[in-house]
């Protein structure tokens, strides 16, 4: 099971064991993190926004057009922002570091 690090707005680092085959948004919410995910992964909101560590950003699957368009609506958009509902958890994500932005 891959381990990821989620950094919360108070800068606390949380080491998590996450199951493969589910969306990152889902596993973060299962761990109790505040990610609204209003549209449940249908690319109609940007409330599942996370900021990916710059070293990890290029290792993730590319941003598809629909995600790219919706990211424009994310609060606090950065160069390494992603929508966590669009990131499937795989073994390759072992060591991933993401930051969960302050809720809007
Ligand atoms: Fe709405 Fe990710 S949950 S775009």
Helical/strand content category: alpha+beta
Helix content estimate? 10-25%
In whole angstroms, the N-to-C terminal distance is 31 Å
- Any guess at the CATH architecture? Roll
Superfamily at the CATH H level? Answer: Beta-grasp domain
Computed Rg: 12 Å
Task: Please characterize this protein's 3D structure.
The chain is an alpha+beta fold and 104 residues long. The chain has a single domain (3-99), classed as Beta-grasp domain (Ubiquitin-like (UB roll), Roll). The chain has helices at 24-30, 65-71, and strands at 3-7, 13-17, 49-52, 81-83, 97-99. The chain has a five-stranded mixed sheet. The longest helix has 7 residues, at 24-30. It is globular, with a radius of gyration of 12 Å.
Output the keywords.
104 residues, alpha+beta, Ubiquitin-like (UB roll), 5-stranded mixed β-sheet, 2 helices, binds FE2/S2 (inorganic) cluster
